[in-house]
Amino acid sequence: MLNREPYRRLFTGDNPNNDVPGNDESQNLADNFQFDDADIIIRAGGVDFQAHKFILSHVSPIFKDMFSLPGNQTSQKGVPIIELVESAQVIHDLLSMLYHSVNDPDFNNLNDIHRLLLALRKYDVEKICMRVAKQLEAKAAESPGRVFYIAMSSGLVDDVARTAAWHMLSQNIFDLATTHVPEYNQFHVGTFQQLLRYHVKCGDVAKEQCSNLRPQGLDWIWLQCRTSDCKGSFSDRFPDTSDDRLLSSRNQHPSVKRWWLDYISALGERLKVQPLGIDYSDEGFLKKYADGASKCSICGPPAMYQLTKFNEGFEKQVRAAIENVPLELDEDDFLL
Ligand SMILES: [Zn+2]
């Protein structure tokens, strides 16, 4: 029987033997792959993993073919040896996921995930590919650029790359365009342009929401206030401008207060460069416009609270609008 505890430790770094020299550590990777009934040895990075042809053939047509070819290496016990070019860590991870199907290892390192995915693709091991993809996707919010590259180069375009591109919308577009991510050098500039175009489109759509709001919910103070000293505009929607010509247009629609127009206009400018992930509860930002409202005795007291409440619904509106923006990705032209 396999002992799961050392297996877990190897992935969490909680290995009591981690003070042994490097080669011994690599040898430890094979600790859980010692079977009396093994009928194949997978050698990788100088480490021998005992395994079973039946299990590997079942998940990989490539392994199945390899086992059918005559080999020239055997162990002392006469078990055939197949030597792979992958590192011991990669083969350890691959075999661990095959042999321990209940608890997937918790990968901390994106490079380990990438190498494993490449091996899974090479050996056509579909069975665990989506489980690794899930782990990759879970890191998309933290490292969207790197995850995007790994997903694209591992054939996980729809499953993970699009999620990573979505998380890039939380970056300011200027940061996205200028921050050094080593992986960006690995792919075609056309792909990078597709990402930037997507970001720009989403920014436009997000900003548009600031002028697509119909003045519903007439309890909003910026619509209700009727005092003559609280300047407002007459408009059938909230324009994303504070142009004075709009302030003088006349129609039957409720007036929108100038301090509110200033707020929604500033919010639109933020969304244009960072469609997702802006802090809608940024007190400094809200206070600036709530202070503008405080010049009016009606608008002033509820302004901060109402802006906060408004933002809760508006954030959802922005997200829903961005979700409809298509992302064109040319998978075939991805790598240099
Ligand atoms: Zn007012």
From TrEMBL:
Gene3D superfamilies: Potassium Channel Kv1.1, Chain A. It holds the Pfam family BTB. It comes from the Eukaryota. Residues 38-99 form the BTB domain. SMART domains: BTB. This is BTB domain-containing protein. It comes from Somion occarium.
